[in-house]
């Protein structure tokens, strides 16, 4: 087994806690479902949010997923680059996997599909 990175991103329409929690959980669940990942396969999850997201930590959504109590999770801010996609939550999940990098499916939802259109066609 090798540690692989699984990427994902999503956006919210406004900075509200319920939207942050809902969209983050939806993204993470889709990432694990599509890639056949179990909580015990996850080494860690890093979530970043653009600086216009302040109502809640995206990690709160991940910690609420059943069976994820012991998964190490951390939230941080994304770099504030002019012209970058607003209200965006990104996920980097480190997982133990037998898949090759090419077999990993990275998930981009909502407006975040603009970030990696080359990968969205796979999903």
TrEMBL record:
Reaction(s) this enzyme catalyzes, per UniProt: chorismate = prephenate
Keywords annotated in UniProt: Amino-acid biosynthesis, Aromatic amino acid biosynthesis, Isomerase
Q: Pfam families given for it? A: CM_1
Q: What is its EC number?
A: 5.4.99.5
Which InterPro entries does the entry mention?
Answer: Chorismate_mutase_AroH (IPR008243), RutC-like_sf (IPR035959)
Query: Molecular function (GO) terms listed?
Result: chorismate mutase activity
According to the UniProt entry, where is the signal peptide?
none
- Asked whether the keyword Cytoplasm is assigned, the reply is no
Q: What is this protein called?
A: chorismate mutase
From what organism does this protein derive?
Answer: Chungangia koreensis
């Amino acid at each position: 087994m090798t540690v692989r990175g699984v990427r994902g991103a999503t956006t919210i329409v406004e900075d509200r806690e319920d939207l942050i929690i809902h969209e983050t959980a939806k993204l993470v669940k889709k990432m694990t479902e599509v890639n056949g990942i179990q909580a015990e396969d996850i080494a860690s999850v890093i979530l970043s949010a653009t600086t216009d997201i302040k109502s809640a930590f995206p990690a709160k959504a991940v910690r609420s997923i059943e069976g994820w109590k012991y998964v190490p999770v951390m939230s941080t801010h994304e770099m504030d680059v002019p012209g970058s996609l607003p209200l965006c939550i990104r996920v980097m999940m480190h997982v133990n996997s037998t898949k090759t990098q090419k077999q990993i499916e990275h998930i981009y939802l909502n407006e975040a599909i603009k970030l990696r259109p080359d990968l969205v066609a796979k999903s």
